[in-house]
Amino acid sequence: ESWMILVITDHPSGLGGDDLFVVRRDGDGWGTPEHLPAPVNTDAYEYGPTLSPDGRWVYFTSHRNGSADVFRVARVDLGLP
After folding, report:
1. Of the residues 8, 16, 38, 60, which has the fewest C-beta atoms closer than 10 A?
2. What pTM did the predictor assign?
3. Cross-strand pairs, 20
């Protein structure tokens, strides 16, 4: 519970459409959302983030290839504890 991944539509720092952001616990509240780097976000839609049961992978859906496909990235590669 020290971070969560958000889907934000048309955020000023986004790449277009829906992008994934991480927000970290900041004391009793939450910090400012941070745009997740490539290879997660593209100019296509990214959404539906899910953490694998073992906590090692973040799965998400992207339309980067013209249709909805599921991708994964290692949680540690995103700098998430």
Report:
1. 38
2. 0.91
3. 7
